[in-house]
């Protein structure tokens, strides 16, 4: 019996390449495609695939939020991340959200096929470039990024969010961190997007609820 797969990526050319690589394989059936997180959740509810092959970086709802929603609402559906994002923050955020596997774009066709089959069978699969970092965390040799608040943020972004939660404005944060005000402003915008906060006030409330912003 073939594994029913939903492809989720906002780049149509990449999706077309995945379809071309996978559709001739008898063990895989491409049942649908989606270009946004919102569309992905609608397709998951309608199609109930075995595996969602998911990019993390998409406009609107992020892949992390999609993963969390699928894990919560459709626990039988497995999420296999296929992304360009090789940083620890993205990796551990995906795992914490419920991803069953994590591959980097550029993985060979056979590696993707094996991963799709493995996660459908209930296994956890991580590509070689990220598996060593998972092992380091499990053996206590990592940096603790998976346990930090907002693991999707970089260390700098988390530090900026901490200062925002303390009530500092962009100018004060720039002076404190020896950064240009424009850099801080850009980082704050990125932080709001990553933590899915509608505005600065919501970000402050969420940050304080997780222990940031303590004086």
Report how far apart the termini are: 58 Å
Helices, by number, come to 10
Radius of gyration: 19 Å
Please give the number of β-strands: 6
The share of residues in extended strands comes to 5-15%
Level-2 CATH architecture of the largest domain: 3-Layer(aba) Sandwich
CATH class of the largest domain: Alpha Beta
Q: What is the spatial order of strands in the main beta sheet?
A: 2-1-3-4-5-6
The average pLDDT score comes to: 88
CATH superfamily of the largest domain: Response regulator
How many strands, which pairing sense, and closed or not: the largest β-sheet?
A: 6 strands, parallel
Query: What is the count of distinct domains?
Result: 2
Shape: elongated
The SSE string, one letter per element, is EHEHEHEHEHEHHHHH
Question: What structural class should be given to the helix and strand makeup?
Answer: alpha/beta
CATH fold group of the largest domain: Rossmann fold
Portion of residues in helices?
40-55%
Low-pLDDT stretches are 141-146
């Amino acid at each position: 019996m073939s594994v029913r797969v939903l492809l989720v990526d906002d780049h149509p050319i990449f999706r077309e390449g995945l379809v071309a690589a996978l559709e001739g394989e008898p063990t895989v059936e491409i049942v649908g495609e989606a270009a946004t997180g919102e569309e992905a959740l609608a397709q998951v509810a309608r199609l109930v695939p075995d595996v969602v092959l998911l990019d993390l970086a998409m406009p609107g709802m992020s892949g992390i939020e999609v993963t969390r929603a699928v894990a919560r609402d459709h626990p039988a559906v497995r999420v296999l991340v296929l992304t360009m994002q090789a940083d620890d923050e993205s990796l551990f955020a995906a795992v914490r959200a419920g991803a069953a596997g994590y591959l980097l774009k550029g993985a060979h066709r056979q590696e993707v096929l094996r991963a799709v089959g493995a996660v459908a069978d209930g296994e956890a699969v991580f590509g070689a470039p990220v598996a060593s970092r998972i092992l380091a965390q499990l053996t206590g040799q990592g940096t603790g990024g998976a346990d930090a608040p907002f693991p999707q943020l970089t260390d700098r972004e988390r530090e900026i969010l901490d200062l925002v939660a303390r009530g500092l404005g962009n100018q004060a944060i720039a002076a404190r961190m020896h950064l240009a005000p424009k850099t801080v402003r850009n980082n704050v915008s990125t932080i709001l997007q990553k933590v899915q906060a509608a505005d600065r006030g919501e970000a402050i409330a969420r940050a304080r609820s997780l222990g940031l912003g303590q004086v």
